[in-house]
Amino acid sequence: MHAYRTHTCGELRDHQIGQTAKLSGWVHTIRDHGGVCFIDLRDHYGITQVVVHPEVEFFQAARQLHFEYVVCFEGEVVRRDDETINKKLPSGLIELKVTSMEVLSQADQVPFPVHGDFPAPEATRLKYRYLDLRKEDLHRNIILRSEIIASIRQRMTGHDFNEIQTPILTASSPEGARDYLVPSRLHPGQFYALPQAPQQFKQLLMVAGFDKYFQIAPCFRDEDARADRSPGEFYQLDMEMSFATQDDVFEIIEDVIGGLFSEFANGKTVDTGAFVRIAYKEAMQEFGCDKPDLRNPLRLMDVTSIFDGSDFKAFAGVVERGGVVRATVVRGIADRPRKFYDEMIEFAQSVGAKGLGYIVWKDGEGKSPIANYMDDARMGSLVEAGSIEDGDVMFFIADTESNACSIGSEVLKELGNRLELLEENCFRFCWIVDYPMYEYDERNKEIIFSHNPFSMPQGGMDALMNEETLDILAYQYDLVCNGIELSSGAIRNHKPEIMYKAFEIGGYDSAEVDKRFGGMISAFKHGAPPHGGIAPGIDRIVMLLSDSPNIREVIAFPFNQQAQDLMMNAPNDVSRKQLKELHIKVDIPKGMQ
User: Fold this and answer.
1) Fewest CB within 10 A of the end CB: N or C in the chain?
2) Residue 148 contacts by C-beta under 8 Å, 6 or more apart in sequence?
3) Straight-line distance from the first to the last Cα atom of the chain, in angstroms, rounded to the nearest whole number
4) pTM
């Protein structure tokens, strides 16, 4: 017989009654009932109840076991008494009547229970992450992540993509987030960088003729934590394909991601086939952001012209100063108490608004301080714009266009959540397309790239030469699911002459382009195919499919919000010898020592 087990703790069933079995695992729970010791033994696969009777010589030793001891039991598989059958467990019809026991490993008292729903401070959970990972929900999330990645690989290879690994040690990038730098011992004073993404390498693979590439790529960015973004590192499905149009990329991703979500949706409905496409400009007008949640039926509308020159001076003054008025209509909530509107005003102010106007339509007329200053024609225009019916409420935001968008986006989310308007049990996808190539930086009074500087402008060189700069669109796109951005991508600019011109408009001369992106430019001068790609985030995909509120719940060993690994004590100090080998002197700012 095997030294540790003949079966796993999730394997035994009633058809094995009468057989001898050996199980090994962790003591999940232990109960002493009337002189009989009942132990729930847990391993990766499940739980089996083990029963130790007082006639065995090790009975007292079994009673001294503690939670999380690792123990090997051997015995006979027997049927449970009818009153003790546990229908919640796959193994709940049977138990193991123990004839021998061996303690494989003892355990100190755990800082928090592994069984049951007992909350623990996040810092404690992260410090003892190996214990946290024993919990059923978190353990299940990590297994789900493994299954999702395996499915992605199968789907990508099914589309003839080749999995190729790109370097982890590379050159620092002048664009994007802050790099993680790695000092070079052999080249004093010089540094490698961990890749923020395999962007340039995957494009070079297309130049090298590999046609279709993917990898489950680790990416490293020195940035702050968010609920849907881990500081330090994350993983993405990085892909690139040659001789591809935007439609070609969409077709692959719609099949891979749509099929993936359908496979793991756990009963939720999933958008399949072609995803909805929304132009960036339209998204900003209707949702106030480029990450719309299509489960929310609420939309923004522009009512600036209705308030232009009106007697409601608060809004008319905003319009006169070049601002806008955005509105959204919520159906059938006119009977909500005043407290609801006061709380919505407070929320709007918490996200940067000066206030939140509203008109309630009840008993055939619009009622609010705003309505008192609007003539019948303007009120009629509002009714027409919002297709208003009795019982509806229209909310208003008046501000600069950028502020109205950002505030409006948050107000739509809050109304949707507070009023429970979101479509339930579904995954709604959309593509955001037609991003502007450039935008105006008000702070520095200059033209800058708005998205990805390596994207192909729509219209190519002709657009760069003849269109108004801020009107130039790019072949750039984002994939969004339930209001969460899963990825960004683009059809790349593969022509050196167009790249030089695009960067010239963005404020870089050709010498600067050669200095910063010399490898790419050189490669493109040796024959580059048209190519494009995208990189959906693995962590966010798993977060959505596991219905987890925080990305740390789907990563085996995450950092905390301060980018620290509390379990391994990273980052930490290194020895003087190591610093000397790297030719580095540490200069810690005062107050941080």
Assistant:
1) C
2) 260, 264, 538, 541, 542, 545
3) 59
4) 0.93
